[in-house]
Amino acid sequence: MEYLINSQVRYRTDDGAIWPVRDDESVIILTITMNRLLVYLLERQGQVVKRDELLNNVWDLHGLRSSSHTLNKYISEIRKHFMRAGIHHECITTIPRVGFVFNSDVEVIAIDNAENNIHSDTINAAVGTVLTHSIQPLRYKAWYAAITLFIIICSTALIISGNRLKSKTNVKLQDAPVYFLFNYQTCPVYTTQKNSASFLEQKKKVFLDLVNVNKIECLNGTSFLYQASDSYMYGSKGRIFISRCTSKKNKYLSCLNNYWTGYEQNQ
Description:
Radius of gyration: 19 Å
CATH topology of the largest domain: Arc Repressor Mutant, subunit A
Mean pLDDT: 75
Low-confidence stretches: 113-144, 155-174
Strand content: 25-35%
Largest sheet: 5 strands, antiparallel
Helix content: 25-40%
Structural class: alpha+beta
Strand order of the largest sheet: 4-3-2-1-8
């Protein structure tokens, strides 16, 4: 299902994609749990949903540990995503000591025949493949291959964690090649492609600028997967991927993905 929210933002529930109506390339992909939370609130627009109901239906029933702190954090992240996409007034209101409500004064239109005219990496959990809804120039093929691999790994980790599959299948850090770039505070930052010596400092600066502007924090026990397209490094519009992942015993537990397209350096 696809929704048009406040005539400014489109939201696709199948893969958690959010993007501005006038900027099809600036797509943000929500995590599985964050997507489930937004769908739950959106389907009950105008109704106050109690905290316990959200914790039970979004976390507990899917085998995940829940807490009010985590719920507050996810609500805050969703609000930020809406603001970045162009909606500057509050879509989700906090009802103190009760819960949350997706505001009824926000216009929400369901679109049955969703357009597939933007680039969106949609994870097909059943077969573990990536479906690409647009044809990309050949020069981006290698870059997308690297990013696609990480999206699959991160999403597989989330699916395994979220559904408590009774399987010994684990997603290990060494399942995909990564290259150490530098330490952001106490968090190691890895790239998905080998780093040219001439671009090392520039890559670090781009990473630091983005995490500072978007308030992506280094949390205890997390690491970052990061890649910026060559076109961006050469001063043109490009694509950037930053994923903050939590791992334990060399296995991914969850990842928060951030993906920018059409991004351009400020000269």
